[in-house]
Amino acid sequence: MSFVRDAAIRLGEAPREAGARPTRWGLILVVFMRLMAGLWLCQGLVEWASIVLPQETMLKSMPGAAAAAVIFFAIADPVAAVGLWLATPWGGALWLFAATSQIFVATTVKDSFASAWVAVDVFLVVIYFVLTFKASQARDG
């Protein structure tokens, strides 16, 4: 069985490089990413519920920018959640894009997101960067 070094999904046990071992910070980062994946998947499902469940769709009553934001996050959030769950670099990058987009939309589009989400998103982004930095320091050191 051949292994791809940076494959998103690995079957079996991939051979380790000489002296390489998983770090505690790397494990904490993966657990954080999986927790974020659950939260972002729930967020995406809430966005989809607001699109498909009501009898009278709220997209007709919303301003155009807010409706576009609902559609964008209904797509972006679940995709980012999958990438986070797999703990892939593209998952972290897509999640950062979705989180910063949510901050931007919450501050610019009226009645789109609660202002508390801005603080939560900023807090989570800072935690992600700190954990990523610590994991890379532990791996390199």
Give structural notes.
The protein is mainly alpha-helical and 141 residues long. It has one domain. The protein contains five helices and no strands. The chain has helices spanning 24-52, 58-61, 64-85, 89-108, 115-140. Helix 1 runs antiparallel to helix 3 (64-85), helix 3 runs antiparallel to helix 4 (89-108) and helix 4 (89-108) packs antiparallel against helix 5. The protein is elongated and about 55 Å long. 19% of the residues are buried. Mean pLDDT is 80; it is low at 9-13.
Keywords:
single chain, 141 residues, mainly alpha, 5 helices, 0% strand, elongated
What's the β-strand tally? 0
Outline the biggest β-sheet: none
Q: N-to-C terminal Cα separation, in Å?
A: 31 Å
**What is the 3D form?**
elongated
Number of helices: 5
Short recap of the structure:
It contains five helices and no strands. It is an all-alpha fold.
Would you spell out the secondary-structure blueprint of this structure?
Elements: H1 24-52, H2 58-61, H3 64-85, H4 89-108, H5 115-140
Helix pairs in contact: 1-3, 1-5, 3-4, 4-5
